[in-house]
Design brief:
Elements lengths: L1 H4 L7 H8 L4 H4 L8 H9 L2 E7 L5 E7 L6 E4 L2 E5 L8 H8 L2 E7 L6 E11 L18 E12 L2 H6 L15 H8 L7 H7 L2 H5 L6
Antiparallel strand pairs: 1-2, 1-5, 3-4, 4-7, 5-6, 6-7
Helix pairs in contact: 7-8
């Protein structure tokens, strides 16, 4: 409680600006309402994105989506579609979209420190001709996220540079327990043993990436 008592909270945008300042002209004016040709190139090269959603009551979620580069279809300058693949069936983000369609997307290209941000309104599409263009390893998605683009802009590289995210010399995945051990530690009441979980997350796990393929 001592640390909590020592905190000073910001409660207004005026206080925030007074502390951190205002953006220069270039970052302040970089937001565009539609996809540029450079944005299309970025989406064609990106194999991974993060999708931020918020329910009507304010609860938030960020969900990763990944597929081979170019998995995001550009339908026109203000519309993109993202396939859904087999997952854990929680559908936290999709549930949010049903009550609040506003989404924020962050597209990564491995090795690049800058990213592409897209904000807009989303819809869940269960059937459309473009689903045929999303087949990977014989798997046709049963659902796609259609996003009507409202804002597009490139995000600077500073966070990735500070994190040294792509510097393999900083990588140390073994610093943490395996996903099987973590799962059993945080969910001790589940029936599976650590050995069961190690087998679940083993080589066979990759075979379930594209069911039916």
């Amino acid at each position: 409680m001592g640390h909590m008592a020592e905190m000073t909270e910001l409660t207004s945008e005026a206080e925030l600006r007074d502390l951190l300042g205002t953006p220069a002209r270039r970052p302040a004016t970089k937001v565009r309402p539609r996809l540029h040709e450079r944005d299309r190139e970025w989406l064609a090269a990106s194999p991974f994105c993060l999708i931020a959603t918020s329910a009507a009551d304010g609860r938030c979620d960020v969900s990763p989506k990944g597929d081979p580069p170019g998995f995001v279809l550009v339908l026109d300058d203000t519309t993109i579609a993202i396939p859904d693949r087999a997952g854990n069936k929680r559908f936290d983000g999709f549930g949010n979209i049903l009550s609040n369609p506003q989404v924020g997307l962050l597209f990564l290209v491995p090795g690049r420190d800058d990213t592409l941000r897209v904000n807009g309104r989303a819809r869940l599409i269960r059937e459309a001709p473009f689903l045929d263009d999303m087949i990977v390893r014989g798997n046709r998605p049963r659902l796609a996220l259609l996003v009507e683009v409202e804002e597009v802009f490139t995000h600077c590289a500073k966070a990735f540079l500070r994190a040294q995210l792509w510097d393999q010399q900083t990588w140390n995945p073994g610093i943490l327990p395996s996903v099987a051990c973590i799962t059993k530690d945080v969910q001790p009441d589940i029936e599976e043993t650590v050995e069961d979980l190690e087998q679940h997350y083993g080589p066979a796990y990759r075979e379930l990436l594209y069911p039916g393929g």
